[in-house]
Design a protein that fits this description.
Blueprint: H1 45-55, E1 60-65, H2 71-75, E2 82-84, E3 87-91, H3 92-109, E4 116-120, H4 125-136, E5 140-143, H5 150-159, E6 162-167, H6 170-179, E7 188-191, E8 206-208, H7 209-213, H8 219-230, E9 237-243, E10 251-256, H9 257-270, E11 279-283, H10 290-302, E12 305-309, H11 319-326, E13 330-333, H12 335-350, H13 354-375, H14 382-399, E14 406-409, H15 416-423, E15 429-435, E16 440-444, E17 456-457, E18 462-466, E19 474-479, E20 486-487, H16 491-497, E21 504-512, E22 518-523, E23 528-529, E24 535-536, H17 538-548, E25 552-558, E26 565-571, E27 573-575, E28 582-586, H18 588-595, H19 604-608, H20 628-642, E29 652-657, H21 677-683, H22 685-690
Parallel strand pairs: 1-12, 4-5, 4-6, 5-9, 6-7, 7-8, 11-12, 13-14, 14-15, 26-29
Antiparallel strand pairs: 1-3, 2-3, 9-10, 10-20, 15-16, 16-17, 18-19, 19-21, 21-22, 23-24, 25-26, 27-28
Helix pairs in contact: 1-3, 3-4, 3-8, 5-6, 9-10, 13-14, 13-15, 17-20
Length: 693
């Protein structure tokens, strides 16, 4: 790896002087190999898309369900579709036509070369059309969480140099309209679905998608599209994936055309039992995630797959209905999705009759033992597995996953207990590892040897452990064509992560076992990864809370592997000058804050109803009973802080007040007074657990 070839001899490659870039207007050098997959000729995504649509023209590409209220509008769309009830199918040939129309629409409304199109919408066919249309027209795609606040939307549109924004509905349109005056580059806002406010389709710069679909564009615009597409470079930025840092607004990860295409082809090489024309997936996770981009958009395109679109309530409980319809052959989910499935099945099992419950549990036990024997290289009982799998097969069918050949889980750490539960249902969860900075998944555990590994790296991606300790644990570093280009407009953070020798420093701690599998054991970064797979910067949220509540000394957000965020709080008290330990005496600022609520309290023990001296007690087991007025005031303060959250996932749901402030002698702070998060998590584990019951 690391060898280069004469790029001037390749089509679709722009001249470049560096392997990194922080600008949408600069290409990068590619780390091409001399043999194997790493030596394949670079392609732009438009070339990749055109190739797939021509090859699979008559096959179904997209299937979506019409909203009954939108039937009339949908029937007016100028494209032939096959109807099955309220479900519509789009072939690959029609897919290509829709993308061309989308590209012409974007040019018509003012998309500028090398500027971005912000897409603020739930998963729908128009998301796909807009993405490929943007890339054909020489633009960059910047996906935005539908749950983002107006300010977070502004951050994406501003930093991504957006000249066009495509929004889902009236709710999303309202966010963009509120900030549009602060975005001088933003020329057009397109609303995909009605109903519409009066100004949409009337006021300058606001458009209805359905009106634009009906437009006939002339030869001049089509020639401009051809020129734009010819000018696209495989080594230019295609996608901006916004990922949270440790503070402030998200950083924009620049992903090249080549990295996306390479990752897609490398993953395909290791996916088992691929059958062209018989692959089906369901898209339901946010498409501004790199995982959803690869698994939902690019892998199906390359493998003649069909994509079913889940409805807006997919993450709230309706996903099962789409799975039952689609019967996917591949399914990707973050841990929280599989946890929800487990919770549902466990609740059903509890209510079964005694005999049925016994049969199901006996069957699950046999199936789990069968798979564990395989992991442990023991001889399993094939007969027990055969008849038990007949029973568990009914459960798989009820989930809509009976045709699924690969159940892939990633985006957050996966508990062994969760993997074992699905093993008992004859459903092997394939762990996957990747980052936005790796342009998608780069390690899979298809070669199962244990329940801890995330597997081996894909073809021609190098992996090593930097600065390993005595146990071989160190920072996971990666190098290959999948590495990102850099962070947009952020030179220093790019240099910190992506070194001149091509090694990407992930910030994850791990080791490589004797079979060559990567096992992740921790993170250098102080990011929380929820069970839903969202990266959350705790420091930013903690500062918001402390800004609203001046009585709070320390706030530590918790939520790793969890369904929602909680926070541990300490109140401001004086410290003993000799021991450095916190005392029972509140600081003046805390006392003044209490006075604003007509509370004449000066001691922590009075506020929390605890002993005046807890130095000899286990702080994690001291019963805290906050004054009702204090409790209410803190609740309201957290609600105010939540209003400034970037997304719903970053809102704190519960809190606990600890019986003393953090300090070095009590172990929560280090020598430089930096919070020792792992120590706090261990020390107050029972209190934390109580907030998730």
């Amino acid at each position: 790896m690391g060898d280069t070839i004469d790029m001037s001899s390749l089509s679709s490659i722009k001249a470049a002087t560096s392997y990194t870039s922080n600008s949408l207007h600069e290409a990068i050098k590619l780390r091409l190999g001399k043999q194997g997959l790493s030596a394949i000729k670079p392609q732009t995504i438009p070339q990749f898309f055109r190739e797939g649509c021509q090859k699979y023209a008559t096959y179904p590409a997209l299937v979506y369900e019409l909203d009954p209220d939108l039937n009339a509008t949908a029937n007016a769309h100028p494209h032939p579709q096959t109807t099955e009830g309220v479900w519509r199918t789009v072939t690959y040939a029609e897919y290509a036509k829709q993308v061309e129309q989308a590209a012409l629409i974007l040019l018509h409304v003012g998309l500028q070369p090398r500027s971005s199109v912000g897409i603020l919408a739930f998963n729908c066919p128009e998301w796909f059309y807009t993405e490929f249309g943007t890339l054909r027209a020489g633009g960059v795609v910047a996906g935005i969480y539908p749950s983002n606040s107006a300010e977070a939307v502004y951050h994406v549109l501003d930093t991504s140099e957006a000249t066009v924004c495509v929004v889902d509905d009236t709710q999303q349109m309202a966010k963009v309209r509120a900030i549009k005056s602060r975005l001088p580059r933003l020329r057009a806002v397109l609303q995909l679905h009605g109903p519409y406010e009066d100004f949409v389709g009337v006021d300058e710069g606001y458009y209805r998608w359905e009106d634009l679909l009906l437009m006939q564009f002339g030869a001049e615009l089509k020639e401009e599209l051809e020129r734009r597409e010819r000018d696209v470079g495989a080594n230019e930025c295609a996608l901006l994936i916004y990922t949270s840092g440790t503070v402030g607004m998200p950083k924009a990860v620049m992903v090249s055309h080549d990295a996306i295409v390479y990752d897609t082809k490398a993953i395909t090489k290791i996916l088992p039992d691929i059958k062209e024309g018989a692959e089906t997936v369901v898209t339901y996770l946010p498409l501004n995630h790199i995982a959803a981009q690869i698994f939902d958009i690019y892998l199906p395109l390359y493998n003649n797959g069909c994509v079913y679109f889940a409805d807006r309530g997919a993450l709230k409980g309706t996903l099962g209905r789409t799975l039952a319809k689609a019967k996917p052959t591949r399914f990707f989910g973050v841990p929280r999705i599989f946890e929800k499935m487990q919770e549902k099945l466990v609740s059903i099992e509890v209510n079964l009759s005694a005999i049925t419950k016994y049969i199901v549990r006996f069957a699950r036990q046999n199936v789990e033992q069968y798979h564990m024997c395989i992991y442990e290289r023991k001889t399993p009982s094939h007969f027990k597995y055969w008849y038990s799998s007949k029973i568990t097969g009914h459960i798989k069918s009820a989930l809509g996953l009976d045709n699924c050949k690969s159940l892939i889980i990633g985006g957050a750490p996966v508990r062994e207990e969760l993997k074992k539960y699905f093993l008992s249902l004859d459903m092997v969860l394939i762990d996957v590892y990747g980052l936005s900075e790796t342009s998608g998944a780069i390690a899979f555990s298809f070669d199962q040897t244990n329940l801890k590994s995330v597997g081996k790296a894909i073809d021609c991606v190098e992996m090593k452990i930097c600065n390993p300790d005595n146990n071989g644990h160190g920072e996971v570093c990666l190098r290959g064509r999948t590495n990102f280009m850099g962070y947009l407009n952020d030179v220093q953070n790019t240099k910190d992560v992506l070194k001149e020798d091509g090694w990407l420093h992930t910030g994850d701690i791990g080791y490589i076992d004797t079979q060559g599998n990567l096992i992740i054991s921790g993170r250098i970064k102080e990011l929380i990864i929820t069970a839903g797979g969202e990266n959350i910067p705790p420091i930013h949220i903690e500062e918001l809370i402390k800004r609203e509540l001046h009585i709070i000394s320390n706030a530590m957000v918790v939520g790793d592997h969890k369904k929602y965020l909680t926070v541990l709080l300490t109140l401001k008290t004086e410290f003993d000058n000799n021991t450095g330990r916190p005392t029972d005496i509140l600081t003046k600022e805390a006392i003044d804050w209490l006075k604003s609520f007509n509370l004449e309290l000066t001691r922590l023990s009075e506020v929390l109803e605890i002993p005046t001296d807890i130095s000899d007690l286990d702080a994690s087991n001291v019963e805290v009973k906050p004054h009702p007025i204090v409790m209410k005031a803190i609740e309201e303060g957290i609600q105010r802080a939540n209003k400034h959250s970037i997304s719903n996932a970053q809102k704190v749901q519960k809190f606990s007040i600890l019986p003393h402030d953090f300090s070095t002698p009590t172990g929560e702070l280090g020598p430089t007074l930096k919070m020792r998060r792992n120590i706090v998590l261990q020390k107050y584990a029972n209190i934390i657990e109580g907030m998730y019951k």
